[in-house]
Amino acid sequence: MLRILVPIVLVATFLTPRAQSQGTFFSPAPGSPVVVGAGSGRVILLDINADGRLDMLTCHLRQKCVGVQLGDGAGRFAPAPGSPIALKTEPGDIKLADLNDDKILDLVVTHSETDSVDVFLGDGKGGFRLAPGSPLKVSEDHDFYTRSVDLIDINEDGKTDIVTANHRKSAIATLLGNGRGAFSPGPVITIPPESPGYSFVHGDLFGDLDGDKHLDLVLVVNSEFNPGRVRVLRGDGKGDFKETSATPLSILSGPRFVKLADVNGDQRADIVTSHGSDQLSVLLNGGNGMFMPAAGSPYKLDDTPFAIAVADVNRDRRNDLLAATVNSITVLFGGSDGFSPAPGSPFPAGPGAYNLALGDVNKDGNLDIAASSFEGNAVTLLLGRGN
Fold first, then answer.
1. Does residue 365 come out as left (phi exceeding 0), alpha (psi in the -120 to 50 range) or beta?
2. Which of 19, 33, 146, 302 has minimal CB crowding within 10 Å?
């Protein structure tokens, strides 16, 4: 049975100091900023045309489109033919996966105005066309807000499914894939609300937290009346999730984003959350359903963090924390004694840097950062220099 240990959490006044090499760790790419159009939200770095170079997709809420930029492998990007992809409604979230087993990435876009999704089939050259039958209706709900999407094999039949989260209601819906690009309605996961005014924060919802090889459902709950909460529902590998009898974990108030990743290298998924109080917290998975704060957690930042990434950006075999911090990107290097700011952090980005993506855009072996600009028209590219 999954148990969650609820510890007393003390706020660190600042981050643990650690010696670092001199000079800034990330610097603007020669082609930065990359003009992608106004109001970029989610940013994705993937090789969509199979040329060995990372490409970039951006989601634009108010402009009702998805931008596609093809990378040249040197850190520069240019619009793909047919970009931007025009949408009939404002998009909520975007994800890519091979949905019809043709070895080409396809695109799924949720709607903010209706509870439905668009499926776009990729042509392998950077272009996408609306799939037959799209949009796919998830429910009759027509409330306006951002809905998230995950492309996962929720029932472990070897085929990718579409899972959408209704963040203001207690429902997570599924569309089960047949492996050939067609989908049919699957089970709806209903979660009883904890309190009035609650919502689930964005980020990672699914991960194997208990090591049984089945995806679990992790809900970070934000409520205007209560502290933040973490609720874990155990997956059975067939698409069903059961809430454990353990008491939900209380966390700092105002959670904004959640990331599930192995922070300390013990092969267990940990929970990282950003908070409106300019703090970033890390809960380490101790196994058997127990979680404890990492050394020094929560970490006080100089700016409000939103989206989070976890990766070893300085190649020291320890994972680091990265956060989109409104007009900058904050990077914390991981070490045996906690986390400390990377040289030069926070790194300037365009206005409205609420989202980020990681990838080696110039093929030098180092991870780079792409940061959105919801209040601007360009994505900031920051090149990593490694150790």
1. left
2. 19
Q: Is 155 left (phi over 0), alpha (psi -120 to 50) or beta?
A: alpha
pLDDT of residue 144: 64
Under the banding of pLDDT at 50, 70 and 90, the label for residue 7 is very low
User: What's the one-letter identity of residue 327?
Assistant: N
Record the pTM: 0.90
Instruction: Report the amino acid identity of residue 233.
Output: L
> What is the Cα–Cα distance from 40 to 377, expressed in whole angstroms?
7
| C-alpha radius of gyration, the chain, whole number | 20
Q: Mean per-residue pLDDT for 215-222?
A: 91
Q: Please give, one letter per residue, the 3-state secondary structure of 61-89.
A: CCCCEEEEEEECCCCCEEECCCCCEECCC
- Assess whether pLDDT exceeds 50 at residue 14: no
Tokens linked to 292: 């404890």
CA angle 121/374/357 to nearest 5° reads: 60
Place of tokens 């380490």: 284
Phi, psi torsion values for 25, nearest 5 degrees: -90, -35
User: How many C-beta atoms lie closer than 10 Å to residue 61's C-beta?
Assistant: 18
Residue whose structure tokens are 């919802």: 205
Task: Give 284's strand partners.
Answer: 292
